[in-house]
UniProtKB/TrEMBL annotation:
One of its GO terms (cellular component) is cytoplasm. Its cofactor is Zn(2+). Residues 269-709 form the Peptidase M3A/M3B catalytic domain. Belongs to the peptidase M3 family. Keywords: Cytoplasm, Hydrolase, Membrane, Metal-binding, Metalloprotease, Protease, Transmembrane, Transmembrane helix, Zinc. Signal peptide: none annotated. This is Peptidase M3A/M3B catalytic domain-containing protein. Coiled coil: none annotated. It is found in: Cytoplasm. The chain crosses the membrane at residues 27-48. One of its GO terms (biological process) is peptide metabolic process.
Amino acid sequence: MEGDDGRHSQRHKVSTTVNSSGRGRKIIALTGTAAIIAIAANFAFLAFKSRKNRRNRKELVGSNVRVNISAFEIRKLADQIVAESKGVHDALASVPVDKVKYQDIMALAELEARQFPMIQSCIFPRLVSMSDDVRKASAEAERLLNTHFASCRKREDVYRVVKAFVTRGEWINAEAKSYVQVLIRDFERNGLNLTSTKKEEVQHLQARIDDLSMQYIQNLNDDGSFLLFTKTELEGLPAEFLQILDRAADDKIKVPLKSNYVSPIVELCKIGATRRRVAVAYGQRCKEVNVPLLENLVVLRHKLAKLLGYDNYAEYAVCSRMAKTTSKVFEFLEDLSTSLSDLAAKEFAILQDLKKKEEGDCPFGIEDLLYYVKKFEDEKFNLDFATLKEYFPLSFVLQGIFKVLQDLFGLRFEEILGASVWDEDVRVFSVFDLSSGELIGYAYLDLYSRVGKYGQTCVLPLQNGSLSSNGARQVPVVLMISGFTKEDGNCPVLLRFSEVVNLFHEFGHVAHHLCNHASLVRFSGLRVDPDFVEIPGHMFENWCYDSSILKLISGYYQDITRPIKNDVCISLRSWRHSFSALKLRQEILYCLFDQIIHSTDNVDFLELFKYLHPKMMLEMPVLEGTNPAACFPHSAIGYEATCYSRIWSKVFAADMFASKFCDGLLNHHIGMQFRNKVLAPGGARDPLECLSNFMGRQPSIQAFVDSIALSEV
């Protein structure tokens, strides 16, 4: 189900270094489980000791990130950022167009390098601070800074100077050329190369599109619709779920039509009529207001794109991304769908047979998909995820991840005791190159929930790496946020397996941020092609399904010498791709809808869904009375014309993993090749060129399809 708000992760010998005191380092050379147990014990000791050293705060050498910043300081810093930025832009605008030099243009790049950690210092407290005042000041600063930098991209006086430099073509290097080209693209996407009248129309359209996009999401968030059911009609739902639902006057159970209530019902409820009723009502939300709103949005987007010189909005959205053209996107989606068709048909036959045995000869509908998938998986794999959780203590999983990152990519994490942080549970690590001992950067881990804190797991760049004009390198600094709940007493934080996978995914982003070696802030950290940015995270998930890695990161919380059993490892690997063909074809269906409406004029949304749904979902029709366009937030905001990107990154991640890592998950040589050829080049390099350079060939969908077929039910 779509979310309501539309929002955005071996037993080789190792040498692991941990900081055992504020002065020296202690080298521990152990193997396998013994290494992890020793490190975990040391990790717990360091966590205790670090709390005793909070008074002697240490600053991170080379980091310009400000932590523990007050509301007053945030507002003051934001004003300083705006003032300095305005001064640099004014100075560039004053340069005569016939005298502009490379150094004049690169003043903007140097400004970005100085200001990025200052900007992030203003913004990240909104996500982590327990203070209402600080969070409010941070949100205000973010709005102020967004408004200012948006206005900078509309400055005609600066555009004229940069354009004059581009015309002369005096490039110092390829990255600098890419930087100036990106500046020009940003200016011209605001219409600065158009007549005054057309430029004003572009900016009016942009504002109107933003307003309508937010209104679409707000409509879904404000929707208060619900259904009433008897307890019998909700057979199969666990008692703890039913207890959180309100009761109506006639003692019926009130089910709000929000994804966190709907998903358990369509997955667990044994009553087919209930599943269908809930799925239909969920698909009818905001139909009367959001369908015409999205239709209007698409019209405005096409109009904007055509003003800017594109044939349609999809072309505008895709041309600067890895896919390059809409025809390439359609080719990718259709080839993948075709490759999955036979396997999807086999999966569907299994589900139809299950429904026939349980409910008789009634037709199989889309509302039955999740219920019978889960039913099959429960019987086939016998995975008790509640029990499995007891084998993944957070501290133990973290140490396993650190070991993998060290063995594979040569990244050694060493905790800094007594560093300045915004909460006592935040941990800070220096990250060193294992071979040279050189400081690569810093990583903050803020993993536990608290009042006022953002609750999802994500990675936030705090300082991007860069190379200054005098040759000095600014180190990257990254923050991982999560919302794990601390248990009372001595019980450690235990992770669901899905949380373990998500943690690996996000550490893929951490590694990417730290290893990106671009010279300019505009292309360093995670500021890379949007079609590429998720690839490292998706690829790193693969390590969660290998038996040797699973044993490395698991240990029963009351006896960590007991990892999960071999049969569980095998079941998890098979479960991973269970019914993946059907699920992916459903996702491709929505990607095709998104791409078609943004590349074609005057599309009837409902008729398009009626055509695509049975074609992609093996003759299953769209639910009667629904129009999925009413509650598909990705097409409204954030992913418009680019919904394909998630599948794109998963496919290429699978291709890299299968071609290079499948036979050696901790092969340091291959890991360093990946670090140097894929993670290091940065956003100025063509990502397809980077992937091809690493794999020795062009990327392909075949490895992804094969990985699913190998796990065929």
